[in-house]
Amino acid sequence: MSAPACENKLQCQLNGLVGTAMFLSVMILLWAGYDMLSTGMPLKEAVVAVLMLAPTLASVAFAALMKQTGRSMGWAGLAFTAGGAAWGVFVLNGVTHL
Questions:
Q1: Phi, psi at 42, each rounded to 5°
Q2: DSSP secondary structure of 32-78
Q3: What is the pLDDT of residues 81-92, one digit of tens each?
């Protein structure tokens, strides 16, 4: 229970889940960015890809803001952050199979 916003054991576990979802989202964004740069994707297609990953980017921004301010996430924050990670996985899998 080393996180600064821990009030009890459940809150620390929640912080760990949010951190894991945030890490996954960042890795998804880095993977997509590398893929766009390494393939020389045209600007129009890159904009569409970024827009498709906007929920993932929003979940990373939200989690980073909450960590920066030191506020507790709560279940809604976990749902938003995990939803962004799940959306990123969905987009990466869908784009590679199109």
A1: -60, 155
A2: HHHHHHHHT--HHHHHHHHHHTHHHHHHHHHHHHHHHHT---HHHHH
A3: 999 999 999 998
